[in-house]
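FORM 7B: Structural annotation worksheet

SECTION A. Query
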Amino acid sequence: MRKLLATGLVLAAVLATGCSATTIARHHGTVKLPIGPPGTSASGILRLGYVLDVPDAPALVATQMGYYQQDLGKVSLQPQAFTSQAAEITALQTGQLDAAYLDPITAITISQATRNGLRIVAGAALGGTELVVTKTITQPSQLKGRQLAAPAGTPQTAADTWLRANGLPPLSRQETAPSTSAAILHEFTTATIAGAWEPAPLDTELTAAGGHALATTPDTPAASNTPTLVLAVTEGYLTGHRAAVANLVKGQIQAVRQLAASPVPAESAFQQKLAQAGTTALPPAELTASFAQVTFTDNPQEPQIRTEAQQAATAGLIKPVSNWATIFDLTQLNALLRSAGHKPVTP
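SECTION B. Predicted structure
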């Protein structure tokens, strides 16, 4: 069993080694913005990071459809699409990002490990991660002595919790070592690994390569209700630019509404971004199946995240959270929901 130290630097390093994609970041430059709504006077730059995975689609849609831009007004949006969460984490830790889309456990770990902290300000996605194994494996006991793969954060937490519940050891350091999506696919098709716990679209690609889903995130009423991505903002930026954060969240809400109405534009934009990043486009059927797995939402589902955090702490992946007020700040989200006549989000 892997023994993790609790220091912030080691926690950050563990997260960086758990990502399954290449660490090259693609910077798309500052977006030239129109003047915002009446009364918008704040200016400056908002540097936003996200990863080229399907759960991050709200970031892609809000950028491509101009939702962030129309709400931010004079604040210049600087979106940065990463091909791995490891690179995104590094950018956050070195002060290169003001906000980012992250899985909940990663967001909590960074908040605990950095001096300035990080606050979850909205939800983004539920579901969309699962354990895909070879066809010959039909029950957990058959995984004994077999190698798996999983990125750090929420997927590793889910995998470790499920493995322990089925009398199996948690993932080893080797099983969470850095690897590209292409490498995991190769290892899977050559039987080097028996399966992987991955987010969409990689889980769909593994299924298309001959695998099948053996498990999803455990201990929840429905796997589709499991938080897999949130929008987080650095405490320093949140403190100094609350109006900009509110407008960022507003753009996120608009993107979620668009995705609920039709995911087709997001699927097209996703393929375009993959091409820009030098990644092979997905077959249309696999891409559609990937989007069908995910529920996009502006509600971070705090109770479920608390459960995830307890599981991660039990597994030794994070420190227990003693003060949830240092993790969440849903002030802007609730204000926007109230103004639209919706019920605010509560713990």
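SECTION C. Observations
The radius of gyration is 19 Å. The longest strand covers residues 118-126.

SECTION D. Sign-off
Analyst initials: ____
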